[in-house]
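Summary: Need help interpreting a holo structure output

Steps to reproduce:
1. Submit the protein chain below together with the SMILES for calcium ion.
2. Request a joint structure prediction with the ligand placed.
3. Inspect the structure token block that comes back.

Expected: a single structure record containing both the chain and the bound molecule.
Actual: see attached output.

Input attached:
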Amino acid sequence: MNSCDGRWSLPAFRSTHRSSAGIPRGNGPRRSWIPLLACVVLAIAIAGCGKKSSTTPKLSPGRLEVTPASLDFGSVVMGQSATRTLTVRNAGDMPIDATPQFAGSSASCFTLTPSAPLSIAGGASVTLQVRFAPNRTGACPGTLNLDASGPAISLSAVGEIGFTVYGTRWETVTDGNQNSCRESARLVWDADVVGSTTATASIKARIYRAPAGTTNWSLLYTTACYTITGNSGTDTYGVTIGGYARSSYSFKIEVVRCDGTEPVAVRGPGDDQNLSSVCFERLCDTSPTYSIFDAWWVNVVDADHDGRWESADLAWDADVTNGPCTKSVNVSVYWRHPGESTWNLLSGSPCYDITSNGTGDYYYSRGIRLTNPGSACFEWLLVLRACGGTANLAVRNYQTDGDLANTCFER
Ligand SMILES: [Ca+2]
Ligand SMILES: [Ca+2]
Ligand SMILES: [Ca+2]
Ligand SMILES: [Ca+2]
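--- attached output ---
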């Protein structure tokens, strides 16, 4: 029988039993020792229990262990955050109440979930989330003290400035035919440093265009590097764009650090109505205007230096003046003697392309010379027509260009 396991039983020291065994009643001295004996036995049993109880280990006090011993949050852009996980175990027997606290100059950059205080039973573990949200740039070291006497977790983190782009607007909108579809406009935006009112950064912006409703972005423009400061609005930037075939377009602005390649801020049609479904057109598509910008002589041959040329080439530069269009045209060259009223066709160019107001598309009539002996002077007229067309789209003559006046040849 284990007298310590609670299943007590005592010897049947009952006077009635003895009495029934023939012990005379009324024998006071013989009855009085029986309860005494029971008490002695009980006392011995209790003493034995007490001795056995003293060999059981005492409950150990709560003791916290943490994994891992340190956390590295890396670099986090201001306005964003990073979270790491800790496991805290009570390696003792007794429950422990802990009040974790962050220490160090960057303590305010860190938060704990669940927040202090913690109550952890003996042998139990809890998972803690430590969140780093930088409120300044540069290194943000810290310490998480789990308890006054508990382990300390080393925290390393770096805050980086962030960026945003907003405040878009269109300036200098040109809508020559006033049909609410612009031919050109200046797109302006405001890029800011996030998280610091004094930090500066060297950035550039990339401007993209896509047909409205699509994400078929094509790069239009990359700005030069420029400096922005904090949330200043005095560092806005803009580019003039246009010259697109008539359609609705979406636009996207990417901000890129000058020493980087990946965008650090983006604004597009999804978050800015100014960048969504903007109608552009070019007037040169529907109502082109033309000019012959210049005419001049090249390859002049005047072997005897008497001012009368033996031969020369007549060159000209024709333009489309109201948009970046390419048009197929031809130019006819006419001559007459000064004082005459009728122009004579000398030659007509084949059809060729002219593009906007560039000069690279100049053309010329080669080898103009007299076919008859003697000498003669001439005035000149250039007429520009659409390829296959008959209407005069532009002219240049001796009155508007001295090179086309009184030019003398000899043979
Ligand atoms: Ca227009
Ligand atoms: Ca700004
Ligand atoms: Ca000559
Ligand atoms: Ca031209």
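--- end attachment ---

Reviewer comment: The helical segments are 15-20, 28-53, 283-286. Confidence is low (pLDDT under 50) at residues 1-29, 39-52.
Status: needs-info
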